[in-house]
From TrEMBL:
Single biological process term from Gene Ontology: GPI anchor biosynthetic process
Subcellular location field: Endoplasmic reticulum membrane
Pathway(s) served: Glycolipid biosynthesis; glycosylphosphatidylinositol-anchor biosynthesis
Keyword 4Fe-4S attached: no
Major subcellular location class: endoplasmic reticulum
Assigned keywords, A-Z: Endoplasmic reticulum, Glycoprotein, GPI-anchor biosynthesis, Membrane, Transmembrane, Transmembrane helix
Membrane-spanning parts: 20-38, 469-491
Record membrane topology: Multi-pass membrane protein
Gene Ontology CC: one annotated term: GPI-anchor transamidase complex
Protein name from the UniProt record: GPI transamidase component Gpi17p
Family listed: Belongs to the PIGS family.
Length: 502
């Protein structure tokens, strides 16, 4: 009887404590648990300038205006120069309408302080061309941007010289870029994808194990002047190596008539032994490989030749070049064979030519200064377009995956990319500074890649919403079930109390 009275006396107190506990727990979950859950699971998405990206990407060609100044030392008056300008524009845009308001030449009268190493100059010459038998009406200086006209010419002929001669390859390359057919002719497929840094590796591969040495340090310096002229486009670093016992995967055939070993053209695709030759570099930057192959046949007094090749070399598209080297003098076994500077000079000349092809240098005209200028303008346009393609891919990715994170670093990289794109366009349009425009366009490519491949965002792309549930369910499940049952019990108790009162 006494125990029954004590239990009845304790029931209101226990009920009250249970209600207080449930209430406190409910308040704790709502005020602290839920905000903590959402703060730890909510994905941060920085706001990207999508409209600005779309505007630039859709109208890049309309915003760029490549106008190349050409100074005429031809004794023409202002009205004649204006007539030449109209004639040139008319022929250019009728043949290549894609270039309208995008690429053009701007003619002006020559002034005495203009330097042909910096600006384009067209001069007239009263002398007859010394190489008259070649039939050329003009000559482009290989050392500057100066063009000399010979014999008589008229306005149409001058337009043809500029349009179909000096700037022809640049014009057609721009048209192919705009039409997205740059790689269809095969010549441009040789070039490596653009990078602001390249590692150039010179390798001497010896088929035998006989000791060998080469004066690569002396001849590799020949590349430095070219690298300096190209430093606004990319940076180049040089390294070298020697490897022995580098056997071929093909078997050269002996030509009895010429008394040489020959490698057929159809066998060149398997010339490089990628399986056994150590061609792996640990450089992050793209590598341009130049291989000097020294065959064992040289020790037998026989040369190794590539059939139908004048330079005894070949080019591997988007990879590098190979030169098969033969010693002219007899070689003694068990003595160190030395390849001296004079023997390596023609090899390096071949490699220089291959290098220019591998970086996408136009093949004409002969003037290196003109070709570098053309490469600068082409690279600027390709880089700007690549940067905007990267940004548009980023926008599509973030719109397709609502749960992907957009960190602040991505936003900063996007903003830097857009700033560099605008600055590059300004340098082209307002100042005609094509070297500076390349540098800014290179920066835009670098930061657009950073924005797209930001590690925080890439990791989040593979972390779907279901994973969050799997992580938090062991914690949320027990707490939620206890709280849920406690709330139900409390609600039932309150309803029971009301009924008893009634």
């Amino acid at each position: 009887m006494a125990d029954s009275l004590i239990t009845k006396a304790e029931q209101p107190r226990i009920t009250f404590l249970r209600r207080i506990t449930v209430g406190v727990l409910l308040i704790f979950v709502v005020s602290l648990g839920l905000p903590l859950y959402f703060s730890t699971t909510t994905i941060y998405r920085a706001e990207l300038p999508i409209e600005e990206i779309s505007e630039l990407a859709s109208g890049l060609q309309d915003k760029l205006h490549f106008k190349i100044p050409v100074y005429l030392d031809l004794g023409l008056e202002t009205d004649q120069i204006n007539g030449l300008q109209n004639s040139f524009n008319s022929k250019l845009y009728s043949e290549y309408p894609e270039l309208y308001n995008f690429w053009s030449l701007g003619f002006a009268k020559y002034q005495g302080d203009i330097d042909s190493t910096v600006d384009y100059i067209v001069r007239g010459s009263q002398q007859q061309q010394q190489q008259g038998e070649s039939g050329q009406k003009y000559v482009v200086s290989p050392y500057s941007k100066e063009t000399t006209l010979y014999a008589q010419y008229n306005q149409d002929e001058l337009v043809s010289i500029l349009l179909e001669g000096i700037f022809h390859e640049e014009i057609t390359s721009f048209v192919k870029l705009i039409r997205n057919t740059l790689h269809e002719d095969g010549t441009h497929a040789v070039a490596l994808p653009y990078s602001s840094n390249y590692n150039v590796v010179f390798s001497l591969f010896s088929e035998s194990g006989q000791p060998i040495d080469w004066e690569i340090g002396k001849v590799s310096k020949l590349f430095k002047p070219i690298f300096q002229k190209l430093n606004h486009i990319a940076n180049f670093t040089i390294s070298s190596q020697i490897q022995y016992y580098s056997s071929l995967t093909i078997q050269p055939t002996f030509n009895q008539e010429k008394s040489v070993y020959e490698i057929k053209q159809e066998d060149l695709s398997t010339f490089i032994n990628f399986g056994d030759w150590n061609l792996i570099t640990h450089e992050i930057t793209p590598t341009i490989n130049f291989i000097v192959y020294f065959g064992e046949s040289s020790y037998r007094g026989k040369q190794l030749k590539i059939a139908q090749s004048k330079t005894n070399s070949f080019l591997v598209p988007q990879w590098g070049g190979v030169y098969v080297f033969n010693k002219d003098k007899p070689i003694l076994k068990d003595h160190t064979t030395k390849i001296v500077e004079a023997e390596l000079l023609p090899v390096m000349e071949t490699f220089v030519s291959q290098l220019l092809q591998l970086i996408g240098m136009p093949s004409a005209p002969k003037s290196l200064a003109v070709r570098i200028d053309s490469l600068s303008r082409l690279t600027t346009f390709k880089n700007l377009r690549q940067s905007l393609e990267n940004l548009m891919s980023l926008v599509k990715l973030t719109e397709a995956l609502n749960e992907i994170s957009i960190p602040e670093l991505t936003k900063e990289s996007v903003e830097t990319t857009l700033t560099s794109i605008k600055e590059s366009i300004t340098q082209v349009n307002d100042f005609g500074e094509f070297e500076l425009s390349v540098k800014h366009s290179s920066t835009s490519v670098e930061y657009s890649n950073r924005a797209f491949f930001e590690k925080e965002m890439v990791q989040q792309a593979y972390f779907p919403q279901e994973h969050k549930l799997a992580v938090f369910l062991p914690l949320i499940g027990p707490i939620s079930s206890i709280l849920f049952l406690g709330v139900i019990k409390t609600v039932k108790d309150i309803k029971g109390d009301r009924k008893r009162k009634e």
